[in-house]
Amino acid sequence: MQRDERLVVLFGGTFDPPHVGHLAMAQLALEQTRASRVCLLPSPAPPHKEEQSLPFAVRVKLCQALVEGYDRLTVSTFEADLPRPSFTVDTVLALQALHPDTRFLFLLGGDSLAQLPTWERAQELARTIPFLVAARSTHPLASTLDTVRQQLPGIQVQAVEMPILDVSSSWLRARFDQNLSLCGLVPEPVLVCWRSQSHARQ
Ligand code: ATP
Residue range 37-60: average pLDDT? Predict the structure, then answer.
């Protein structure tokens, strides 16, 4: 597929830690659009997540380890420079203002799509950027989208075709804390970095 250098996928998240679900959806979003790259945007202070175990700087390092060797997957700390709390709508508007010649898409999982109507200025966000959505077992795309469309009628959504990968950061964190195997669900470079950061903090 011919790449459009002015089309970029934004992938916001907590990435606490990043895992194979994130990697698969980023890579498949890239393959299924003409985007030139997918940009991971770790959130410094996610408005939707109260408890958070890894500091922002560590989550950034882990994201960089996740995309190592993937030319078109990148990591940006852009949100750290924005006023807090960093709402997605503000991040997107700021990026659009900075890069008027670039078109952006926003990548999220089905669970986040279901939550979208509760996000800050959701109507404005839905008018501002099209979405790419990867289904999660708890949130099949068709029914989730039906519900969301009732609240955000103009929303533009494209499905990312991908097998359901039922892995989440919270499950991995719990296992890491208990010294249990992460079953290959966190790529080795991320795991090495995570272990070294956690030793450094002890
Ligand atoms: P937590 O378990 O703490 O909720 P998470 O695994 O959902 O974390 P986030 O950093 O919150 O990770 O996810 C960033 C985005 O990626 C969200 O839009 C989320 O819906 C999506 N996502 C995460 N994991 C998957 C997965 N396995 N399949 C599809 N989407 C996913």
Answer: 85
Distance separating alpha carbons of residues 201 and 29, to the nearest angstrom? 35
DSSP H or E run through 24 = helix 20-31
* pLDDT above 90 coverage of the chain, percent: 90
Q: Any idea where the domains of the chain sit in the sequence? A: 4-201
SS3 state of residue 51: coil
Mutate to test the pocket of ligand 1, among 125, 168, 173, 182 (most ligand atoms within 8 A of CB): 168
Instruction: Provide, for the chain, the percentages of residues in helix, strand and coil under a 3-state DSSP scheme, each rounded to the nearest 5.
Output: 45, 20, 35
CATH superfamily ID and name for 4-201: HUPs (3.40.50.620)
- Each residue's pLDDT tens digit, 156-188: 999 999 999 999 999 999 999 999 999 999 999
Residue 131 Cβ inside 6 Å of ligand 1? The answer reads no
Assigned token pair, 106: 């926003």
